[in-house]
Each structure stands twice: as structure tokens, then as C-alpha cells.
Amino acid sequence: MSVSLRVVTYNIHKGVQGLGPARRLEIHNLQLAVEQFDADLVCLQEVRRVHRQMQQRFERWPSAGQASYLAPEGYEAIYRTNAYTRHGEHGNALLSRWPVLRAGHQDVSDHPFEQRGLLHVQVLVEERPVHVVVVHLGLIHASRERQIIRLGQFLAREVPEVEPLIVAGDFNDWGVRLHRPMAALGLHTFDDIRLATFPSRLPVLHLDRVYVRGLRLLNAQVPNGRIWSRMSDHLPLITELELA
């Protein structure tokens, strides 16, 4: 029996938008947005675990980490740190409607100026294990190529080829140059659907993607409108997959 899965990937820009005095807290609006997705799996990037300066600036800063705060009722929130900064830390997260079997993290930083990592979570969908890897790749193409090589090494070590796999996140691949190395790993995306997600106010770049192995790609969409452009500098990518 096949199972439909709604998988969303979303770079939430640490729950804050704007610069300087105009900076505003958007994490509460993002919480409502995540609930509206009604997704099975929500892959998040630039998620704050803690930020002492923002906690002092915004009275409504959540007392819990952003991953836990954003998780709708009944979901499990898995977070791992990619980057440590002067005032706190941030990383990737997965919100799962399905039971979580295990979770891990792999540092794939390519140079000291960009701290990057892979969040790997195994979930149980209708008694079948499904692997999810949440990524946020570097800003330099050569770095991204090396990070894909390290992703391949990680998958070969941690994910059996016979088990379904989803790799989702912010690939920063505005030149669409990673399809071939990802295909070499057996991972494919919506080649005939190009949905721009960045910048959210006037999206022209398709930076956010969902790649799969052992699942069927059904559909993808990107919501638009002023409310979405205010919440983050990225728009969410909402996909429909089928687990055969």
C-alpha cells in the first residue's frame, strides 16, 4: 500500500526579519505557518536554539528553542547545531508527524567562515524506516561540491540503499549545478518544476529543494503573498511524495 507524504523545506532566517531598529520578531507567525502546512515532515534551516541578545531585545522571544516552539501538537522536534556564534547557536531541525527512531549530525564545514552540518533523522512511516537528511550548504560553489561528496560518504555509511531517503534544505545552488552530483548518489528532484524561493519579496532563485531516493515525486508548490515575504527571506517549498 502506498503512502502519501507532504514534505516541506523552509529556511526561517532565525525567526527574525529586518535590520537594525526595524528588526522584528517573526517566530510566532512562523509557528502559525508551520501548523498550516499540515505536513508529515518539516525540514528547517537557520533555526535558533538560543540567542542571548535576541532574548533581551524581544520580550516575546520563546523560552524554548525555536524547533520545539514551532512543532505543532503531536510532532517530534529534532534539532542539531551547525554554528556557534558570540550570542548563541543555530542549526537544522526536523519536525516529524511520524515516530522518530534515531537522529544524528555530521559536520560538513568547508572552511572556518561557514559552519555547516547535516541533520540525519530516521522516522518510521507505516512500519517502514524512512531517512531524512536536512542540509544547508555553503555560499561558494566549490564548497558545495565538496559538501555533496561528504554527503555521499555519509549516506554510504549511514543509510542502506534499500531504505527510502529524502534530502531537503537550502542548497544555495542558484546555478543549478548540483543536480548531476546528486543524481550520481541516486537522488532526484523535480527536474521539470522550477520554483523560485529566494528572495521572498521577489523570488528569482530556486535555492530550496527536495531530493529523493526510493520515493515517487508527485508535486511541488511555493506559496506567495505579502504575509510569506514578511516571515523570512526564503519562501517554503511544499512537496508531495509517495512511498510505495
Description:
The structure is a single chain. The protein is α+β, with helices and mostly antiparallel strands and 244 residues long. It has a single domain, classed as Deoxyribonuclease I, Chain A (4-Layer Sandwich). The protein is 21% helix and 38% strand. Strand 8 and strand 9 form a beta hairpin. 40% of the residues are buried.
Annotation keywords:
244 residues; alpha+beta; Deoxyribonuclease I, Chain A; globular
Question: What would you call the shape?
Answer: globular
Strand order of the largest sheet: 5-6-4-1-13-12
N- and C-termini, Cα separation: 7 Å
Helix proportion range: 10-25%
- Note the main sheet: 6 strands, mixed
Number of domains: 1
Summarize the structure.
This protein has six helices and 13 strands.
Secondary-structure map:
Layout: E1 3-11, E2 16-17, E3 24-25, H1 27-37, E4 41-51, H2 52-57, H3 66-70, E5 76-84, E6 88-96, E7 100-107, E8 117-125, E9 128-136, H4 141-158, E10 165-170, H5 179-184, E11 208-213, E12 216-221, H6 226-231, E13 237-243
